[in-house]
Amino acid sequence: MGWLRGPACLLLMAAILPALGQTQFKWSPSKMVKHMGHYPYIMCSLTNVVLNASDGVFYYASKDPLLSDCGDLDTVWQLQNRPQQSQTEIQCDEEYDIGHIFLIFFFAGGSNYYHLHYDTMLPLYKDVVVGQNDSQGPSRVFMPAVETSRLQKINWKTPAFEKADKYWVQTTKFIAGKYPFRPLDDRLRRKGHNICLKEARFGTPKVSFTDKTFMRSFVKYVKANLQIVEPDFVPPRVGIIHRSGRRQILNDQELVDMLIKDIPVDAELIDFSGMSFKEQVQAMQRFTVLAGINGAGLMNCLYLPANAVCIQMGPYKSDMNYAQFGEVLKTRGPYREWHNTHEDLHHPVPGDKHNTRPNTIVHLDEFRTLIQEALKVASGLDKDEL
Question: Where does the signal sequence lie (predicted)?
């Protein structure tokens, strides 16, 4: 069927884009620019896009096919081309220079602190904050979404954004800052707004997670905007991350008691569950050493004081993402690893075929030596580590 023109086109556009009428949007032909993406792996920007929230479709206008080089773009988000011949204006309820349309990790009613940083916050920070003059910047809107499954269509019925006190909402809104936050969920669909975007950025840009300058600027930005001041001096204190789910340290309290008695040094367990984003970052300012089994909570190492030591620990023969995690954590300062080499201290979990969830009893003597070395580094005796 050929494209509709004239009065028929006007009637069709009126039907799919109900005019609730606050501003007039000049709907010029759309253009596409492709970038290296983080997630999805191709990030595409389309100009002159209108989201009709009532049907969940992003409309654009082009005589040419634009999406063939955009990877998973039209698999995840629903887009439709409506070439404009005679209609040049659309009624908009909201209008922005840039729309950031991206995905967050949400599964089984929760999220993951690692993925929120790695897949969302850091890429958005690069896209929105780095190199921008905030006082003269364009108008923006942030439009997070959740996939039904990996790189499949978004789930408009997701409950992910319903509670503002959840850390995954706090971290996502943190980068949005002063700009409007419009999650793609049923609440937006019920409003039925037309959201008009001069540029729609689908996905997030590729990031170098080993770039120390970039990573440290992100940490500085987070602390400044949370109004958290890094102390000039932190007395020796060791934090051990307590996990209640998979990959537990079964003798974590014994480790604390041993450190207090044998070294001696102040030590405590820290449990991030139930903490807000700001509370987690603030808590890091009191530690000179933070140790934990490979897991999301270790991302808080990014927010430790500059000379503090981060220790990533690993279960027995577990094939985890140690190297990838370690590359990120090394960018902020001193870093160590410990891997359980004792099979008798290994506690597998039934059904864990890939050995990604085992619990561990940490060897006391090895841990004592590890912490003693870390405290030496943190005290400034080993300046090469900083």
Answer: 1-21
What whole-number distance in Å separates Cα of residue 77 and Cα of residue 192?
Answer: 17
- Cα-to-chain-centroid distance, residue 371: 30
Using one digit for the tens of pLDDT, what is the confidence trace for 24-72? 777 788 999 999 999 999 999 999 999 999 999 999 999 888 888 898 8
6 within 8 A of 85, measured Cβ to Cβ: yes
Token pair belonging to 113: 């602190």
Contact (CB, 8 A) for 338 and 311? yes
Q: What is the pLDDT, as a whole number, of residue 84?
A: 64
Q: Which amino acid is at 286?
A: R
Confidence of residue 380 (pLDDT cuts 50, 70, 90): confident
Q: What are the structural domains, with CATH classification, of the chain?
A: 6-202 (no CATH), 226-385 (3.40.50.2300)
Query: What is the model's pLDDT at position 11?
Result: 36
Residue recorded with tokens 């005019």: 19
Pick the closest to residue 364 from 355, 372, 352 (CA basis).
372
The torsion region of residue 117 among left (phi > 0), alpha (psi -120 to 50) and beta comes to: alpha
Q: What are the CA-CA distances from residue 67 to residues 48, 62, 77, 196, 292 (Å)? A: 14, 11, 12, 19, 44
- What value does the mean pLDDT of the chain take? 88
Give the DSSP H/E element, type plus range, for residue 268: strand 266-270
**Whether the predicted model's global pTM rises above the 0.85 cut:** yes
| Interval 306-339: pLDDT, tens | 999 999 999 988 877 788 889 999 999 999 999 9
Give me the sheet containing 335-339, strands edge to edge: 266-270, 237-241, 289-293, 309-314, 335-339
Report cis status (omega within 30 of 0) of the bond before 348.
no
Q: Is 372 helix (H, G, I), strand (E, B) or coil?
A: helix
